[in-house]
Amino acid sequence: MRFAFAAFAALCALAYPAMGEPVSYQAAIARDAAVSETADVTEGSDAATADAALTTEQAELMAGDPDWSASARLYHAGGGGATGNDSLGCRPIAMRTVAVDPRVIPRRTRLFIRETVGLRLADGTRHDGYWYASDTGGAIKGQKIDLYTGHGRGSMQQAMRLNMRTLTIADAGRFDGCPPAWDATPAANMQMASN
User: Fold this and answer.
1) What angle do CA 25, 43, 80 make, to 5 degrees?
2) Quick one: which of 113, 111, 105 has its CA closest to 165?
3) What is the reported pLDDT for 182?
4) Residue 134 near residue 87 (C-beta atoms within 8 A)
5) pTM of this prediction?
6) Exposure string (b/e) for 84-110, b if CB count within 10 Å is 16 or more?
7) Which is deepest, 29, 106, 107, 112, by most CB within 10 Å?
8) What's phi and psi for 46, nearest 5 deg?
9) According to the model, what pLDDT value does residue 123 have?
10) CB 88 within 8 A of CB 178
11) Which of 79-85's residues contact partners 24+ apart within 8 Å by CB, and which partners?
12) Nearest Cα to 164, choosing from 3, 25, 27, 32?
C-alpha cells in the first residue's frame, strides 16, 4: 500500500511540476490587480478620448468642472448580483444604469462620467460617457456609485479598470421614464434640466 502511494505521489510530481506553496487570498488579489493594471490602455477612455469625435455637449462636459466625484463599484445581474428591476421599476441597462445615494445624486439624473468616454464595450463600440441614475442600494452611502455592467460576472471585465476608482461626474440633465437602451440615442427621451 505504501509503495502504491509513493508511486502515485511520484507520478503526480512528474505530471504537475512544482506548484509551490499555497497562495494567500491577499497575494492572489494583488497578482490580479497587477495583471489588470497592465491591460491594454486602448480599452479605456484615457487613450481613446483624444481620438474620439465628441459632440459639443460632450466636449463642454469634459471641459467643465465636475458636479460630483464618487468612488465606483461594479455590479451585475445573476450569481448574487442584481435581479429584477431598478428602484424606478425599470429593467437595468448594461453600461447605462447607475445606482446612487439619492441624498447626494438625485435619481433621474443623467450623468456624464468622463472616465467612461471611449471605453470599449463588449460589442466593440465605444461608450459615450452617459449614465442614468435610476437605481439605489443599501450599501451605497455618500460619495459612492455602482455601475451596472450587464448579466454575469464576465460582463464586469470591460469596466474592471473603473472598479474602486474615484470618478468625475457631471450633471447632464434629467431624464423621464427609463434609461434608454443602447440602440436609442442618449438624447431621445431626455428632458434637459434648466440651469
Assistant:
1) 45
2) 113
3) 80
4) yes
5) 0.69
6) eebebeeebbbbbbbbbbeeebebbbb
7) 112
8) -55, -45
9) 86
10) yes
11) 79/152, 79/153, 81/152, 81/153, 82/135, 82/148
12) 32
CA distance 68 to 172: 12
Angle at 74 between CA 119 and CA 158, to 5 degrees: 30
Instruction: Quickly count: other Cβ atoms within 10 Å of residue 116's Cβ.
Output: 25
Single-letter residue type at 86: D
- Structure confidence at residue 46 (pLDDT): 46
Please give the angle made by the CA atoms of 173, 177 and 181, to the nearest 5 degrees.
85
Q: What is the mean pLDDT of each run of 10 residues along the chain (195 residues)?
A: 62 50 57 46 43 84 94 84 80 94 96 95 91 92 94 89 95 94 56 38
Give pLDDT, residue 151: 87
98: β partners: 133, 147
Q: Where are the strands (E) in the chain, listed by range?
A: 68-77, 97-100, 109-113, 130-135, 144-151, 166-175, 190-191
Give me the residue label for grid cell 509551490. Answer: 20
Decide if 88 contacts 135 (C-beta within 8 A). Answer: yes
Q: Check the CA dihedral 60-62-64-69 and report its sign.
A: positive
